[in-house]
Amino acid sequence: MDADQRAGVLTHPYVLATFSYTKSSSPIHRGVFLTRNILGRMLKPPPMAIAFMDDKFDPSFTMREKVTELTAKPACQSCHVTINPLGFSFERFDAVGRVRATDNNKPINATADYTAADGTLIKLSGARDVALHAAESQAGQAGFVRNLFQAMVKQPTTAYSPELLGQLTGHFRRDHYHVRNLAIEVAVIAALPK
Is the confidence at residue 37, as pLDDT, over 90? Predict the structure, then answer.
């Protein structure tokens, strides 16, 4: 397999399969995961739950075309304008994370325009671009620090201080993204009385 098709843990088959349907990819599930857990952006719950019914779409549609049609309403777009581009960027991977070139006998379109939390427009051409954005963006770095802290301490950073996330993220950047040092700093903070 060509190494440029994978982008670290985000394109690991286990992660991709976790956020898929049984027989098909799910750009929505993948996009929500990336938005909330990787980029640290908040999403409100949908105004109404809509079950994805594959048989309700034109049988010639790709998954991207189905999701585009399903989420076209303005009420949906308030969140899906963020979710869909991220999920579409992972469409080169099927339900179990295998690389694919086609969906329903049509070429995969994994390109998308994503608007970052700071308003910057980012042209995505696939999963690697999402991974690079997550690694290089302040939102992605803060999301990583927040998730590591939560996993280690079992509490949000705000339980310790409203400024703690910014402080830890700043230290993480200045330390050239050394994860072990960040984990040690989190462990020390958790061990000391609040």
Answer: yes
* % of the chain residues with pLDDT over 70: 97
How distant, in Å, are the alpha carbons of 58, 80, 82, 99, 107 from that of 147? 40, 23, 20, 28, 36
d(CA 15, CA 36): 15
Extract the tokens encoding 173.
């950047």
Q: How far apart are CA 193 and CA 67, in angstroms?
A: 48
pLDDT at residue 48 in the model: 74
**What is the rounded distance in angstroms from the CA atom of residue 80 to the CA atom of residue 90?**
15
- Dig out the tokens for 111 from the structure: 């390109």
Which DSSP state fits 177? S
pTM passes above 0.90: no
Task: Please state the length of the chain.
Answer: 194
Q: Which residues are registered as beta bridge partners of 122?
A: 114
Q: Which contacts of 158-161 are long-range, i.e. CB under 8 A and separated by 24 or more positions?
A: 159/194, 160/189, 160/194
Would you call 55 helix, strand, or coil by DSSP?
helix
pLDDT at 2 over 80: no
| Separation of alpha carbons 88 and 83, rounded Å | 9
Distance of CA 69 to the CA centre of its chain: 21
Rounded CA-CA distance 124/171 in Å is 29
CA 111/CA 91 separation, integer angstroms: 9
